[in-house]
Design goal:
Number of domains: 2
Number of strands: 0
Radius of gyration: 21 Å
Helix content: over 70%
Shape: elongated
Structural class: mainly alpha
Strand content: under 5%
Order of helices and strands: HHHHHHHHHHHHHHHH
Number of helices: 16
Distance between the termini: 56 Å
Length: 277
């Protein structure tokens, strides 16, 4: 199987077993022998059987941890992006471990408070900042699904986006992640909207972690009087907080006004946690 020319002549079940054991083999032989395994891995990643590709998708984060950031960025990142555009049966593998693949950089104390408040852990960086940014333009692809009724796919996507916010600069977050959050916040399925509560709140609190503790206060003022802050400069690009007010607080639908109240409550909790530091 190490010879990529042999892959085409091997039965499907054997290919799936090989795909399953790739991380174990890489761990055993070490990253210095990755050039020997790489051709076989790429053949498996492009195999016609989606079950083979699915197996690799579910373990690519483990392989990335073994190989390190350099090899991951050079060899695994293109495979990861390819899986992102694959069948849903394959995409679910990388979506389920999106955060594990990208990991989180060392964070300052203020951000850790917010992350603890919303119940997720931070880890040492796996991909560097530039490599993480290359995935930003592809994240919105997860909003599209082969089965539009599969709301669990969008629910998992929202769940994975929450810790990913700290991987990017605030400008990147608000250019790419904030529009996705707004889309998920008005999803037709209640469970998707509920998990998005945490995501939107993180997006509102996150600027204060990067800039100053008064930022949350500015957001609160924006909730009360959007017009007065419309001309002010603060790091929530595209007037994300104003969009929240217009789409939820001033909505004719009671459910959206209720959502706004929940955002306000979660934001209050986040503000108190920051003030305690």
């Amino acid at each position: 199987m190490v010879e990529p020319t042999h892959v085409l002549s091997v039965e499907g079940d054997i290919l799936r077993h090989c795909a399953f054991n790739i991380p174990a083999v890489a761990y055993t032989v070490g990253r210095k022998y990755w050039p020997i395994l790489k051709p076989t891995y790429l053949e498996l990643a492009n195999d016609m059987q989606w079950k083979v590709r699915r197996t690799l998708a579910f373990s690519i984060h483990k392989l990335a941890a073994i190989l390190g950031p350099e090899i991951t960025e050079q060899d695994l990142l293109p495979v990861f992006v390819g899986f992102l555009r694959d069948l849903d049966e394959v995409r679910i593998g990388i979506l389920q471990h999106l955060y594990d693949f990208m990991k989180v950089r060392a964070l300052d104390k203020c951000i850790l408070v917010v992350m603890t408040l919303f119940c997720f852990n931070y880890r040492v960086a796996l991909l560097n900042k530039n490599a993480c940014r290359t995935l930003l333009g592809n994240l919105a692809d997860f909003l599209q699904s082969d089965n539009v009724r599969d709301w669990r796919f969008r629910h998992l996507f929202a769940q994975q986006l929450i810790p990913l916010c700290v991987l990017y600069d605030i400008e990147d977050v608000n250019e790419y992640i904030s529009p996705i959050a707004m889309t998920l916040a008005i999803d037709r399925v209640a469970e998707v909207r509920r998990i998005t509560f945490r995501l939107v709140t993180i997006l509102l609190i996150f600027p204060s972690c990067l800039y100053c503790s008064t930022m949350v206060g500015m957001i609160f003022k924006c909730f009360y009087n959007a017009e007065k802050l419309a001309g002010k400069s603060f790091p929530i690009t595209d007037n994300f907080s104003l969009d929240i007010v217009k789409s939820f607080a001033k909505s004719h639908r009671w459910s959206r006004r209720q959502t706004y109240a929940i955002y306000f409550l979660l934001l209050s909790q986040g503000k108190k946690a920051l003030a305690a530091q």
